[in-house]
Amino acid sequence: MTVLNERVTTDAVLAVDDLSVTFPTDDGNVRAVRNVSYTLRPREVLGIVGESGSGKSVSSMAVMGLLPRSAKITGSIKFRDRELVGRSYKQMQGIRNNGIAMIFQDPMTSLNPVFTIGWQLAEAYKAHHDVSKKVAWAKAVEALELVGIPEPQKRAHQYPHEFSGGMRQRVVIAMAIINDPDVIIADEPTTALDVTVQAQILETMLRIRDETDAAIVMITHDLGVVAGMVDRVQVMYAGTVVEAGPVDEVFDRPRMPYTVGLLGSLPDPTMLGKRLTPILGAPPSLINLPTGCSFSPRCPLVIDECRSVEPPLTPTDSGNHFGRCHRWQHLASLPNPEKLFEHEEIGTIDDTILPGTGATHVGDDVEAVEQRLHQEGHSS
């Protein structure tokens, strides 16, 4: 059993231990997920973050039993002490949506455009309950009301194209919760939504958590979503977990250079006029992973040991904060670790224009710009 699961208790509703997923291809085996472990308890919110291709969605699809037959899955996935790895698609139907539900990224691909919203929700409920159409319809309307859809009785008769993007996302959440699942997996639920709607969707999910006691796995690349919503966070890179712990500890005291780089690449309104600080390079091929630490080709703290031996995921400063780094103690000793990824070519843009003013410096205001333009007009 892996280090992360040494603290497993009997109240865990979902326990993933040493999960690995490999896809065979003509070019070689794609190691999409490697040795991922976590536990989830009722009402707990776990955030999983990382770049595209880091294994976030594949690991969740493995939990749901939605991977193709060609996928080779090893390790353990236990839902309320019932092993899910090795179950057939048909055997998973009794657990999927009823015990573990998933909110997919694009609501338009999750909803059928030719059926009304109410009909689709009612069918999702009838699939797991032997009830009449009238009872199922009432449950559909109740689910719409629970996620904040105004006039749910009227909106239940409408089609997906008659809903806005935010409303469609609420419908997908209603679809996930209509059977009262114990676990909700949300895969990028706020992608392509504006900031105001994002906040409403996240607030809705937390309210659902409070009212149903469901545990939530939030998969996202948006660190802002993670900071404001989750209890614990796992950072994934190249198919494996590189840092895990309480969200405040991981964000305030990261113990893996990759996490430092992610946090440093966030836009900062106080740094107007400067470029973002990126992590140079690109993630490795999941077919030909580098020897040693998978982040070593891009890491500013790399040493020979990093290139030859992959570090284990072990406790760092505290027993519940884990890092996959040989040099986490050195990283912890740095006064300004965020400067690790600063580069010479990253600096102030001299001709930055402030939105709506034409000002080229932070100190300029509209009046100053108008005066300068007036003077330039006379001189010409």
From TrEMBL:
Organism encoding this protein: Actinokineospora fastidiosa
Membrane topology: Peripheral membrane protein
Molecular-function annotations in GO: ATP binding; ATP hydrolysis activity
Stretch forming the signal peptide: none
Keyword field: ATP-binding, Cell membrane, Membrane, Nucleotide-binding, Transport
Domain ABC transporter, chain residue ranges per copy: 14-263
UniProt key word Ribosomal protein: no
InterPro entries referenced in this protein's UniProt entry, alphabetically: AAA+_ATPase, ABC_Ni/Peptide_Import, ABC_transporter-like_ATP-bd, ABC_transporter-like_CS, Oligopep_ABC_C, P-loop_NTPase
GO cellular component: plasma membrane
One Pfam family, short name: ABC_tran
One BP term from GO: peptide transport
This protein's name: ABC transporter domain-containing protein
Record's subcellular location: Cell membrane
Family listed: Belongs to the ABC transporter superfamily.
